[in-house]
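Risk register update: the risk of archive-format incompatibility is retired. Evidence:
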Amino acid sequence: MDSSTMGSSSNSAGGGAQGKAPLTFAAADQMYVSLKRLFDTGVLTADAFDAQLKQMMIQDSAGHWWSKSRESGEWFYFDGSDWVQGTPPVESTVPTEVKGELGTTAVLEAPRVDEQKEVVKREELDLVTREDVKKEEVKKDIPGDLVGTPPPAELGPRIIALLIDSALLFVAGAILGAVGLAALSYLIGIGYFVYYWSTTGQTLGMKSQNLRVVRVDGQPLTWETGVLRYVGYFLGALCIFIGLLWVFWDPQRQGWHDKIAHTLVVRATP
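Archived output:
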């Protein structure tokens, strides 16, 4: 658990407790379960999860601040210098007195269990709504024909895959050249890429890096896809490799061959 983050949050949580019914440890446990489920399914980001945990911090009768760990869900309390794992004290049903801003004392009854469950439901619904809005905002920045497609693969694995394919074709070309069939190696190179890009979407190099070529419209690959992609690949290499280097600055990591064939290189799903 990040003690610096929790340490800075203990002060802010203290001010938020005034004039508001305190959160019980049992209710916080229920809220954590809901938040963890949203986090594990990708609805809730790590930063949003941490922000919610800060709001769920509880101060016991001894003045210790308690907070749950995002990773383990265990309770930790601040002993004045560091966060220490521990077991929360037994909660009391005695009403809690809270000092108001003008020094007056207000008596707050412990919240009922059904009220806490309702709070958990409202918090979960609010988080889902906010995350859905964020996803829609991200989609606005994606070209229309790419909405709904998987995110593009990283450049590192793509470069490794290309090196592997190049090495395989080099060895094949060297063998054919040794027996006087060097011209055949060019046809094999063309057929190698066109075949795999038209069928499985994975050359041997791409398969080793768990990569796959897909169409941006979600339709199955065809021979036309493979041929167009190779033509674009050839043109991109012919123009001093600008068409191939295009992937370095294109938002969707598409080279000219991807633009022409309407394809995208993504991580292959099992």
